[in-house]
Design a protein that fits this description.
- By secondary structure, this protein is an alpha/beta fold.
- Helix content is about 35%, strand content about 15%.
- The chain has helices spanning about 15-25, 70-75, 90-95, 100-110, 130-140, 170-185, 205, 225-235; strands at about 5, 35, 50-55, 80-85, 115-120, 150-155, 190-195, 215.
- Helix 2 (about 70-75) links the parallel strand 3 (about 50-55) and strand 4.
- The chain binds 2-phosphoglycolic acid.
- 2-phosphoglycolic acid binds near residues 219 and 220.
Length: about 240
C-alpha cells in the first residue's frame, strides 16, 4: 500500500475543479491510499468516498482574529484528515521557519490531522543535505509528544517542478537516512514519501525504490489522466 498525496498548490479555477471532481469519481485504488489537497477554496467540492482530503497548510494558532488565515478547527470541520506542513515553497517564498512549522505540526497532532512534514535540500546544499534534513526533523520531532503520527515527505527542492529527479539509489539512501535518524533519535517509525517531479513517465522506475512509502505529487496530479497512470502503476 502506498500513500499517494496530490498537491494542487495554487491551481485550478472553480469550473476546472468541478470537472476534476466529476472525473475523480471514476478513479479507484484498492491497494493505495489516495489523498487530495486542493486549494482551501475547493475543499467542500471534494466529497468522494474513494479518497481522503488534505489541505496545503494551516495557521500556526487556533481559530480567532487573524485576517486571511485558515485555522486547524476550520479545516477539521471540513473533514480534512491530512495537512501538508512546511512545503519548500512556503519555507522559501514565505519565509516559514522551523519554529513556525513545529507549531503547525503540533496543532495538527492535537486535532488528529496527519501532518505531512516536507523536508529537503536546495541544489547548493546537496553536499551536506543530511545536516539540513536533520535540522528540519529535529526542530519538529524534539517538540511534539506523538511524532510517530507524522508523515515525512522528502522533496529535494531542485527536483520540484523541474523534471529533474535523483537516481533511485540516491532516493533510497536518503529515505533510509531519514528513517534511521528518526528511529535512532526519537524511537519511532514514520512513513517516508518521495516528492519532486513524480510523473506518469517516471513512476515505473521510481516504484522500484524499496524505501518509498508513497509519493507527494504536484504538477502531474492536476491532470487526472496522468495521475491515473501513476495510480495504476502502483496497484500491482
Ligand atoms: P511537483 O511538485 O510534483 O510538481 O514537482 C511536488 C510538490 O511540490 O509537492
Amino acid at each position: 500500500m502506498k500513500l499517494i498525496i496530490s498537491n494542487h498548490k495554487m491551481n485550478l479555477t472553480v469550473d476546472q475543479v468541478k470537472e476534476y471532481v466529476e472525473k475523480l469519481k471514476t478513479i479507484n485504488s484498492s491497494n493505495n491510499k489516495l489523498v487530495f489537497c486542493p486549494s482551501y477554496l475547493y475543499l467542500p467540492y471534494f466529497k468522494g468516498d474513494n479518497y481522503s482530503l488534505g489541505c496545503q497548510n494551516v495557521a500556526d494558532r487556533h481559530m480567532g482574529a487573524l485576517t486571511g488565515e485558515i485555522s486547524i478547527e476550520q479545516v477539521k470541520s471540513l473533514s480534512v484528515e491530512y495537512a501538508i506542513i512546511g512545503h519548500s515553497e512556503r519555507r522559501n517564498i514565505l519565509n516559514e521557519t522551523n519554529e513556525l512549522i513545529q507549531k503547525k505540526v503540533t496543532l495538527c497532532l492535537e486535532h488528529d490531522i496527519t501532518p505531512v512534514l516536507c523536508i529537503g535540500e536546495k541544489e547548493e546544499e546537496m553536499s551536506y543535505k543530511e545536516q539540513i534534513l536533520e535540522e528540519e526533523i529535529k526542530s519538529v520531532f524534539s517538540n511534539v509528544s506523538n511524532p510517530e503520527r507524522i508523515v515525512i515527505a522528502y522533496e529535494p527542492i531542485w527536483a520540484i517542478g523541474t523534471g529533474k529527479v535523483p537516481t533511485n539509489e540516491e532516493i533510497n539512501q536518503t529515505l533510509l537516512f531519514i528513517k534511521n535518524y528518526i528511529k535512532d533519535n526519537f524511537q519511532v517509525d514514520c512513513l517516508t514519501l518521495y516528492g519532486g517531479s513524480v510523473s506518469d513517465k517516471n513512476i515505473i522506475e521510481l516504484k522500484e525504490v524499496p524505501s518509498i512509502d508513497g509519493y507527494l505529487i504536484g504538477g502531474t496530479s492536476l491532470d487526472l489522466s496522468k495521475l491515473k497512470v501513476v495510480i495504476q502503476e502502483l496497484e500491482g
